[in-house]
Specification:
The chain has about 120 residues and is mainly alpha-helical. It is built from five helices and no strands. The two termini are about 15 Å apart.
Length: about 120
């Protein structure tokens, strides 16, 4: 189970790191042009904030246990990313984008799995 938690955490970290870098470095118009139409509903600072939080969450999933410091940050990061995906799903439901809700639900479930495992029976 520990290996499964590591694999999921690393995959999530990669996905959220890429998304976080995109949102925190690109202008709003470029983000919308890349197919992320939801960005039309948010200001540039909010989009950058979302990106920064995703990037920090990605780092929090893998860095603390790798260096053996503040390992409680891993399940906290996973919980934060799960909440982020729940809020993203609400945004996509409001925009009538059900295909994106499925993506949010999968990412939420994976983040919840890491949070459950690292808070519970497979903590560091």
């Amino acid at each position: 189970m520990n290996i499964a938690l590591w694999v999921v955490a690393i995959l999530l970290a990669g996905a959220f790191a890429m998304a976080g870098v995109l949102k925190s470095t690109k202008p709003k118009e470029a983000i919308v042009e890349q197919g992320l139409a939801w960005a039309e509903d948010f200001s540039q600072p909010v989009i950058r904030f979302i990106g920064a939080m995703e990037l920090l969450g990605a780092i929090g999933l893998v860095l603390p246990p790798l260096v053996g410091v503040a390992e409680i940050l891993t399940p906290l990061a996973a919980t934060g990313l799960a909440v982020t995906m729940a809020l993203a799903a609400v945004t996509h439901l409001r925009r009538k984008e059900p295909q994106m809700v499925v993506v949010n639900a999968v990412l939420l479930a994976l983040a919840a799995f890491v949070a459950w495992g690292r808070f519970g029976p497979y903590s560091f």
